[in-house]
Amino acid sequence: MDSFLQGRNIPKERLDSLVEQARDYAVTNGILMIPKDASSPNVFSQAPFTLFASPFPKTLFKQGFDVQEDFNILVDKVSKDFEFLQASLASAMEADVFTKKLFDIHKITREEGIAQKLSLGLLRSDYMMNPISEDTKDFVHGYEIKQIEINTIASSFAGIGSRVTGLHRYVQETYGDVDATIAEKLPTNHAAKGLGEVIVKAWNLFGNKSAIVVIIVQQGENNRVDQRVIEYTIRDSNPAVKVVRRTLKQVEENGSLQEDKTLVIDGKEIAVAYFRAGYTPNDYYSDKEWSGRLKLERSRAIKCPTVAYQLVGTKKIQQVLAEPGNVERFLEDPESVARIRKTFAGLFTLDNGDEGDKNVKMAIENPQRFVVKPQREGGGNNVYGEAIREVLSKNDDSRTQYVLMEKIRPPILKNYIVQVHKDEVLEEDVVCEYGVFGVVISDENGIVENKTVGHLLRTKSTIHDDGGVAALRAVLDSPCLV
């Protein structure tokens, strides 16, 4: 493995000083979150981060950017094919009530007539590096990126994540004597700005200058600083746009859906509903949340995302698209298809039948080679190792709520992890996950806006199977291009 991937072994006194300066930079520059164990919803801490930017091959970084606009188009086109969504999700919906309820909302609104023809997507496609050959030693040229998932709802950390580049530049300049050029290798990240600007564009397209943007949030949201950054970029882009935060329950209780499908809350029409909640069953405490979601979907507000976009982000759709001919069903450009297919990892159905039975047997015989994934967003949901045998050995139809994916084998790097409320900072073995943010607006005639706007790098210790910054199993990072 290349020499720059080796540990730094910084003496403790110098490390303590560097960590203190990095924490102070994070707090001063708003790289903050509310810890899960906070005594109050107003107790903030620096978000967890790596002390140094992690090396990442520039060719793979560029590849992720180059393919994002292809994925933006693919998501939009799949979302508009009702029959494909219905057929692809049929088996998953038999075992997964949450996915079925989302699809039922889509079906209801389609049958009564879609009130808003504009769709808005703030997407994030996530990748990990995988070796091209079994015995590769070449970090820069011996790996390829494979897609872990595409997030079509509540794609997080564009806000505070885009500020981590500045933190790592500061740390490197302070530490200074390892590689004087490393700060020049940290690409500027415009993710927050790009997301805010496209929401403003959708608001403009809505055509009512007195209408508002509503951010749909969770009760007791711990990651609201990240969301506030997007809110402030909206206002920076156009101070006339008023932004409010509401839960799904508040939408149901205080929102009024007019006969013409105008949705009014607190006396203001909603132009854009930007979802940072609604991606997990835990967000639906009662029927009121489901009613609020349906009310939004039935309205003429521009949804980010529509429930159809959200369904495209399910793991089952990811698995079905990887099958021969399905990407080609939606994209005519062979180069776009090739760029997308190059990122696909091995994905296998667990549906009932001969093929599903074969894949179950394959996974049970060698569970370390695979990951079992449910139709969920937000991290912490996947099944690994020996637990795969337990899940797939059940004598019922519950397996159809999952898909099977080959386990990616990213290179193991060294970095210091600065965790929340944890004084000891150690150099650890870590792996990275690379995300690319894309934005898309479409109407009944096709694509109106399609851009790649920024990136995200999250890193976790190798002691964790699953990631998730909010769950404190992963931390924010920046790519240092090599």
Brief sketch in words of this structure:
47% of the residues are buried.
Tell me the layout of helices and strands.
Blueprint: H1 12-28, E1 32-33, E2 45-46, E3 49-50, E4 54-56, H2 58-79, H3 82-95, H4 97-112, E5 119-131, E6 143-151, H5 164-175, H6 191-206, E7 212-216, H7 224-237, E8 243-246, H8 248-254, E9 255-257, E10 263-265, E11 268-275, H9 287-298, E12 302-304, H10 307-312, H11 315-321, H12 326-330, H13 334-341, E13 347-348, H14 354-365, E14 370-374, H15 386-392, E15 402-406, E16 413-418, E17 427-443, E18 446-461, E19 475-477, E20 479-481
Parallel strand pairs: 4-20, 7-8, 7-11, 11-12
Antiparallel strand pairs: 1-2, 3-16, 5-6, 5-17, 9-10, 10-11, 13-15, 14-15, 16-17, 17-18, 18-19
Helix pairs in contact: 1-5, 2-13, 3-4, 4-9, 6-7, 8-9, 14-15
Describe the protein in words.
There is one protein chain. With 482 residues, the chain is of the alpha+beta class. Helix content is 36%, strand content 24%. Helix 9 links the parallel strand 11 and strand 12. The model has no long low-confidence stretch (mean pLDDT 94).
